[in-house]
């Protein structure tokens, strides 16, 4: 996986996955998939411009004190299965919403790239968390994307 920082507040992560663009799209947008990797939150998308996005905490996380909706946002642009742009805001932080872009591109030989661009201006706490710099917050995007790759390529999460 490659990580690029632009102007300090934009993070770009790219991972190559042996999967179809549709499989990656589904893994990002469907709760039956998002439950299996990363922070295991259930994605709740209204996949249209202006539609709502919510990540719903699983019972184990709610019991540990996580809010029922730890992340919320609004869908800005949708082009299945190639591009999704949305706002993204952790509800427990007093920071503005950030902008998150998923770009999915078929590369040939069954390989697809997933590029995640997270624009985090004005949200330093969110930036630290998604970059994996806050120990209690997990590994951020690098860990989530590694887990997604493992799940799609092997059928198992890194932590299964």
The main sheet orders its strands as: 1-2-8-7-6-5-4-3
CATH topology: Alpha-D-Glucose-1,6-Bisphosphate, Chain A, domain 4
Number of helical stretches of at least 4 residues = 5
Helix content: 25-40%
CATH class: Alpha Beta
* Assigned CATH superfamily: START domain
Describe the global form: globular
* Major sheet details: 8 strands, antiparallel
- Beta-strand proportion: 35-45%
Looking at the overall shape, the CATH architecture is 2-Layer Sandwich
What is the strand tally?
A: 8
Order of helices and strands: EEHHEEHEEEEHH
- Model regions low in confidence, pLDDT < 50 over at least 5 residues: none
Protein structure class: alpha+beta
Characterise the protein shown here:
With 160 residues, this protein is of the alpha+beta class. Helix content is 25%, strand content 38%. The two termini are 21 Å apart. The chain has a single domain, classed as Alpha-D-Glucose-1,6-Bisphosphate, Chain A, domain 4, CATH 3.30.530. Strand 7 (98-108) and strand 8 (111-119) form a beta hairpin. It contains five helices and eight strands. The protein has an eight-stranded antiparallel β-sheet with strand order 1-2-8-7-6-5-4-3. The model has no long low-confidence stretch (mean pLDDT 94).
């Amino acid at each position: 996986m490659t990580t690029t920082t632009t102007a300090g507040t934009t993070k770009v992560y790219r991972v190559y996955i042996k999967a179809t663009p549709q499989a990656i799209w589904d893994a990002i947008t469907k709760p039956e998939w998002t439950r299996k990797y990363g922070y295991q939150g259930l994605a709740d998308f209204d996949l249209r411009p202006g539609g709502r996005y919510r990540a719903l905490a699983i019972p184990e996380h709610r019991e540990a004190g996580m809010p029922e909706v730890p992340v919320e946002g609004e869908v800005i642009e949708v082009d299945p299965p190639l591009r999704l742009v949305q706002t993204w805001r952790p509800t427990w932080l007093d920071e503005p919403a950030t902008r998150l872009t998923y770009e999915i591109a078929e590369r040939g030989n069954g390989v697809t790239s997933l590029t995640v661009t997270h624009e985090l201006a004005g949200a330093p706490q969110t930036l630290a968390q998604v970059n994996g710099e806050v120990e209690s917050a997990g590994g951020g995007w690098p860990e989530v994307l590694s887990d997604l790759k493992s799940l799609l390529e092997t059928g198992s999460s890194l932590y299964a």
